[in-house]
Design a protein that fits this description.
alpha+beta
Length: 385
């Protein structure tokens, strides 16, 4: 559904009744005389403390800002950033549904009051959204590890406009596609929790992980239960607008409008398609020998030239040994056009049909059943010892 969301409210939608809770004090919101700042810029922040998170107290991150807008007028805004499932469940393994929306608003309103900020619930519902992270937890209960799917993700021939960060891939932890305005992230959810519990919070994917560290003891003796997490992080409002235009999603960019299961599914499936379309299907085709594969290529493509068939057989043999990114580094060094042409031609080849390795991810997104840890108690040994 949705994990992280960032709401940015203009001054007429909020009231700060305890400004000294912010650092520096947000008294300037009421009277900014003497607060010129750098070119009129001021920002006061209030975040949950590490102690609060460890004690199971989750709060949003708040930033009050004074700046000149694009019309050169001074504006004052309150930015509220939070993980919605952590607000409700103190973890983001358990997932939310549309039915939870009113309860989320009430819980958020209460949390904000404890931080010295008052916002009417009807205004929270229509608060403008400046960033949103759509997500889905994929339970793996057949013995498959997230590593298998992450390996397949890395085989996609992603355009150079995306900066692929797979720093943690060597341990099968994460694959991240990054641009300045959005990120597509797949990672091993339980491994990420383990890193936060045993190594360092600086090396994990999930922010504010301290609040759910206690789950690690519950999950570490699990059997046949892993979680692959998919996140689409739309970090700029203009990116949300452009993506929705592409997907023909017509809606206001407000909290209530975007807390929507159909939109979540559409966004998640769009990026799954994006990756799947850029991963050659030939990689899923297995034969005993190169000769067997060559025969299948020629029989399934009767008009193919001998040169083209040999190209494809050679591509397949190398792809069984090294990753697509390694192949691209080698073969596009002198001429990137030739590499792109080969990949494009390979996508056109007919071969006997094989199931996509992403079929389970697609099924889980299409069904969109919220993951609840309680549904998997029989696979979490710690609860039965």
């Amino acid at each position: 559904m949705i994990d992280t969301i960032v709401l940015t409210l203009p001054k007429d939608m909020f009231y700060i009744f305890e400004p000294d809770r912010f650092n520096p004090s947000a008294r300037w919101v009421m009277d900014d005389t003497g607060y010129s700042g750098s070119r009129g810029f001021i920002v006061s922040k209030q975040n949950p403390t590490p102690e609060e998170l460890k004690n199971g107290i989750y709060k949003p991150r708040l930033s009050v800002t004074r700046r000149f807008n694009h019309t050169q007028n001074i504006e004052r805004t309150l930015k509220i950033e939070l993980s919605l499932p952590k607000l409700i469940y103190n973890n983001n393994f358990d997932e939310l549904t549309e039915k939870d929306f009113d309860y989320i608003v009430d819980k958020l309103q209460t949390a904000l009051k404890s931080m010295g900020v008052d916002i009417f619930s009807n205004l929270l519902k229509i608060a403008p959204v400046s960033a949103i992270h759509y997500s889905k937890n994929i339970p793996l209960t057949d013995g498959t590890l997230p590593f298998y799917y992450l390996k397949r993700m890395q085989e996609a021939n992603i355009s150079d406009i995306l900066d692929i960060n797979s720093t943690d891939y060597r341990v099968g932890h994460c694959v991240k596609y990054h641009t300045n305005s959005y990120e597509v992230v797949f990672y091993d959810k339980i491994e990420d929790l383990k890193k936060g519990a045993t190594i360092s919070n600086k090396r994990i994917i999930d922010n504010d992980n301290a609040i759910q560290i206690g789950l690690f003891n519950t999950l570490k003796q699990r059997k046949f239960f892993e979680v692959l997490r998919m996140e689409i992080r739309l970090n700029k409002r203009f990116k949300i607008k452009s993506l929705f235009n592409t997907l023909n999603i017509k809606t206001d960019l407000t909290f209530q409008s975007l807390f929507n299961e159909d939109i979540s599914k559409k966004v998640l499936l769009h990026y799954l398609d994006f990756i799947e379309d850029r991963r050659p299907k030939i990689l899923d085709y297995k034969t005993k020998t190169a000769f067997d594969f060559a025969c299948d290529v020629v029989l399934s493509n009767p008009h193919i030239s001998s040169k083209k068939a040999l190209e494809i057989v050679g591509f397949k043999q190398i792809s069984d040994i090294v990753s697509m990114r390694e192949m691209k580094k080698i073969f596009s060094k002198q001429n990137s056009y030739s590499w792109n042409r080969i990949v494009k031609e390979i996508k056109k080849i007919n071969l006997p049909k094989r199931n996509s390795p992403f079929w389970l991810i697609r099924k889980e997104i299409e069904q969109f059943k919220p993951l609840k840890l309680v549904d998997f108690e029989s696979k979490i040994y710690n609860n039965y010892n």
